[in-house]
Amino acid sequence: MPPFATVAAYAPPGVGMLAVGIVAEVFGPHGEALPGFDLTLCTERPGPVPTDVGIPLTVTHGLDRLASADLVIALPWADFRTPPAPAVLDALSDAHGRGSLVAAHCVGAFALAAAGLLDGRRATTHWRFAELLARRHPDTTVEPDALYIDEGRILTGAGAAAGFDLCLHLLRREHGAAMANAVARDVVLPSHRDGGQAQYLAAPAPEDCGDERLAEVLAWARENLHEPLPVAELARRAVMSKRSFARRFTAATGTTPHAWLRSLRLSSAEELLETTDLPVEEIARRVGYGSAAVLREQFVRRRGVPPRSYRRSFTAAP
Questions:
Q1: Which of 102, 144, 147, 257 is the most exposed place for a label (fewest CB within 10 A)?
Q2: CA atoms within a 13 Å half-sphere pointing along the CA-CB vector of 18
Q3: What is the pLDDT of residues 248-283, one digit of tens each?
Q4: Bridge-partner residues for 157, per DSSP?
């Protein structure tokens, strides 16, 4: 199937305003340089919809929009312990049945579970409510530490800001790393985060870490990704001991220097695979891996496919 172009986000009464903002930021307009999406908010009864912060949100579209969207997102809501109305559950189930991507993050996963879409699948939700989801839906394997779970046509994400991780993953998977990276830069976020909810979702965003000296060193690292870049060298450029640098880096970004470099190398490799005809061996050299074999090993482990298969998926004729 072609990548999704239309997105319908279901906003129930008590919808989380952060969640609305996340889908609007990721799938809303980003200027002429990036293709836009047809994004629609919909609800069971169009009109003023109360939100979790007490400010009503005017939603003009009904559930019929779920019947035509390529991507359907069930947004989290305050009263998630009460299942949505049967009409909503039917609309979500029907969307999946006709081949749409169906996603939810935070407690929006409870709507997918109530519709039976998580039966026999892995899923995640906000860590605080993972036990409740598992208890209510024993046929679902709940993974409370994951930032998001991709089960093909069904995807779930963790709580709060992890909605960004889920949406950027969808962009990366369906439209490629170049678009995901561009959107992430536009909203000043990392395009990919390693780890899970156990780290309390501390974002590795060193370009906006609030530490000028650290930011300068990491900007230099991005420009010299083809080099080995040992932590000792980064620490030397920051005029710090290796231990102090590692501690300051983790405090500022929520991840380790090694994890940040690995994520940056893989993201850069993805973009080169999509946008150039460079041999895999040359891409490996440019992103700092010693050989194509090392790049392949890391790519398969972190992305699930070898580099050449990834490239084919973005160069195949539509």
A1: 144
A2: 13
A3: 888 777 678 988 898 889 888 988 998 899 999 999
A4: 105, 148
Q: Which of these, 99, 7, 85, lies nearest to 44 by C-alpha position?
A: 85
Contact present, 17 and 8 (Cβ < 8 Å): no
Summarize the confidence of residues 289-301 as an average pLDDT.
90
253 three-class SS? helix
- The encoded tokens of residue 47 equal 């009109």
Report in angstroms the alpha-carbon separations of 29 from 59, 69, 94, 272.
19, 17, 28, 25
Please tell me which residue, 173 or 13, carries the higher pLDDT value: 13
Q: Where are the beta strands (DSSP E) in the chain?
A: 6-10, 38-42, 47-49, 57-59, 71-74, 101-105, 122-123, 141-142, 148-150, 154-157
Q: Could you give the angle at which helices 212-223 and 257-275 cross, rounded to 10 degrees?
A: 40
